[in-house]
Amino acid sequence: MDRFAGLVVRYRKAILIFFVVATALSVLLALGVEVNYDLTQYLPQDSITTKAMDKLESEFGYPEIGTVMVRDISIPGALAIKGDIEAIDGVSQVLWLDDIADITQPIEFLDPNMTESYYKDGNALFQVTYFENGYSPVTADAIDSIRAMLTEKVGEERFALGGPQVASKALVETTEREVLVISAVAVVIVLIILLLLTDSWLAPFLYLISIGVAVLINMGSNIFVGRISNVTQSTQAILQMAISMDYSIFLFERFMFERENGASVTEAVKTAVKKSVVSLSGSSLTTIAGFLALWFMDYGIGFDLGRVLVKGIVISLFTIMTLLPVLILFTAPLLEKLRHRSLMPGLEGFARTVLKGRYIFIVLCFLVMVPAFLAQSRNDFLYGEAGINKEGTEIFDEGKEITDIFGEQNQVVLLVPKGSVASETALADDLGDKEYVKSLQSIPTLADPAIPREILPGELTDNFASDEYVRMIIMLDVPSESEETFAAVEDLKNTISGYYDEYYLAGSSTAIYDIKQVVETDYNTVNTISILSVMFIILIVFRSLSLPFILTFVIEISIWINMSIPYFAGNTLSFVGYLIVSSVQLGATIDYAILLADRYLEYREILPKRDAAMKAVSTSGGSVFTSFLILGTAGLSLGIVSQTAAISELGTLIGRGAFMSGVMVLILLPQLLVIFDPVIMRTTLRGRKKKGKVL
Fold it and tell me: I need a surface site. Which of 103, 135, 184, 489 has the fewest CB within 10 A?
C-alpha cells in the first residue's frame, strides 16, 4: 500500500486530468444509455407472459389496448371523434359501439350489457390500439395528438385517457424529469448535514466532488452493460452517493488525524491512503455482498439494479482513494483555514444512558421484534405496477374518472389456434358466463357462428383472426391486481386449458400474476444469500464465530421493523421493493454495526466490558449518526420528491431503514456486546490485553 499511496501523491496532476476527461466522457456516454420502463421484460424468457406477448405481437401487432373517454357527447358526436382518433398517426385502430352493434337503432333498443361498455349515460368510451407500446416516441406523439385534438373539439375538462400506454408515457416523462431534481435535492440535504456535523467548511464540497465524479462515471459506464431499468435509473445516483459517502469521511478524518499528530500534508495524505485502503475495501465488501445477492433473482430487475450498484461502489472506492487525496493536496491550505466547530454533540451522556437502561432497552427491542417479524411477512403486497402513479397525478385522476363511470378496464387478450369454430364458440360462451368477466369480444360473440367465416366483413376477421390464430378480447371486472384477480387468472387458465392445449394469454393482470410467482421464490434465495455472504465477510474480518450472528441479527431486526410499518399502517407494499430493500438495507447499514463492534473489541483490550461498550458508542456514535442521517435523508428525499409511486416507496423504505438500523446499532448492539461478551471473547481470534479489573 506504500507504493500505491506514493503513486497517488506523485502523479496528482495526471490523476486530476484523468478524472476531468473521464467525467466529461461519462456525461456524454450517460446521455446514450437506454432506459427500459417495461418491467415485464425482466421476467424469465420462458415465462407465460413473455411468450404470449411475443406471439400476440407477431400475429396481431402490439397487444395492449388503451382507452379514451369523452363525457356528455351524442352518438353522432362520438362517431366523429372516433374518426378523428383513427386519423392520428400512431393509432392502429379504434373500437367502439358501432363495431359491435347497429347504432342506427335507438340506443334503448340495444342490449345494455353490450352497449354500456362503450356508451353509458351520455359518455363514450373508445378502445384504442396503437402501433407501438407506450414507451415508443411514436405512441407518445399519438397520445399528445389525441389530447390536443380532444382539447380543441370538446375541451380539456370533458375527456380522460387511460390504459398501459398512457401510464407508460407518463412514467418515461416522470423519470426523465425527476432524475436531476431528486439528485439535486439529495445533494443539498447531504451538504447541509455535512457542513453542520463535520468541522470543515470545505471538506464536504470535496466529498461531493469525489462522489459526484464517481456517480457520473458509473452512469456513463452503463453504456457498456446495455440498457438499464427505470428503477435503476431513478435510484442509482442517490444510493451510490449516500452509501459511499462514509468512505470520503473516513479518509479525510484519517488525514486530519495525521496532520494533528505533526505529519506534513504530503505524508498525512500518504498515510491516510495507506491506512484506509484495507479498511475501506473490507467495509465495501459487505455492501457489495448485499447487492450481489440481487443477482440471483429470477426476476431480472434485481440483477439490473445489483450490477449497477456493485459497479458504483467499486468506482466510488477507487475514486475516493485516488481523486479525493489529490483534491486534499491541492486545497490543503484552505482546509486548514476553513475549519469550524462541529455541531455534533458529545455522546458520552448518551452512551451512559444507553448502558444504564440496558435491560429496559433490550426488553423493548424484543417486545417489538416478535410482532415486527410476523407483520413484515403479512403485508398486503403489490407485485406489479398498480401503484405506478401517485394519487393526485393527472394519470391517476383520469384513470379514476374512467373507472367511476365504466368500471374496471382490465383487459386480457387470448390467442387460441384457428380451426374449430365449435371450440371457439363453446369457450366464448363459457368465459362469458364467468362472474369476473365483464365483456368478451370475439368472432363468435360478434357474428352468428353459423355464418361461414369467408363471408364475414373483413374488418371483423382482420381484428380477430390471423392465418393461424383467433383472438378474444376479455374485459375482466376485477382490479389489475388483487387476490380476487389472481384467483380469476388461475380460473381463466384452467377454463381455457379445458378447450385448448396451446393458448396465449396476455394482459396486465396475467403479467402481474407471473411476476408474483417469480419474485415470491426469489425472496428466500436473495435473503439467504445476502445474509450468509455478509456473515461470511464479518467472519473473515473479525475472525469471530459469534459476531457474524450478533451484528447481522441487529440489522435484521431493523429490517423487520422497517417492513412491518406498512402492515400496521394499513398500507400496501411493493413485494419487489420489499425484496430489494431488504438486501440493500443489510448491505448498506451493516457497516454501522461493524464499526461499533470493532471499536468495542479495541477498547475491550484495556477496559471492562461495560466501559468498553460506552467508549465504543461515544467514539463511533458520531460516525454512525452521520452515516445513517445521510442515507436516511437521501432515501426520504427520494420518497418525497418522486411522483412515481414505486420509486417513492423504494426511497422511503431505504431512508426509514437507514434510521432504523442506525438507532438499533447505537441502542441494542452495545447491550448485546456486553451480554454476550464471554462468548465473543472465547470465539474471536483477537488478542486481549487485560489492564485493571475486567468485569
Answer: 184
275-302 as b/e, with b when 16 or more CB fall inside 10 Å? bbbebbebbbbbbbbbbbbbbebbbbbb
Residue for grid cell 442515507: 631
Per-residue cell: 196:
453542520
Is the pLDDT assigned to residue 345 strictly greater than 80? Answer: no
On whether the CB atoms of residues 248 and 207 are closer than 8 A, the answer is yes
Q: Give the pLDDT confidence score for residue 217 in this predicted structure.
A: 97
Three cell numbers, residue 359: 435491560
Q: Do 404 and 371 share a domain, yes or no?
A: no
Q: Could you give the CA distance from residue 390 to residue 686 in angstroms, rounded to a whole number?
A: 52
**Domain residue limits at 660:** 349-378+543-689
Alpha carbons 547 and 535: distance in angstroms, whole number: 8
Over residues 368-395, the pLDDT tens digits come to: 999 999 998 888 888 776 555 566 677 7
- State the CATH number of the domain containing residue 144: 3.30.70
437-441 vs 469-476, strand pairing mode: antiparallel
Distance CA 42, CA 582 (A): 20
Return the closest-CA partner of residue 385 out of 649, 566, 62, 562.
Answer: 649
Query: Residue 459 domain-assigned?
Result: yes
Cβ-proximal residues to 63 (8 Å cutoff; 6+ apart), any chain: 52, 53, 56, 57, 413, 506
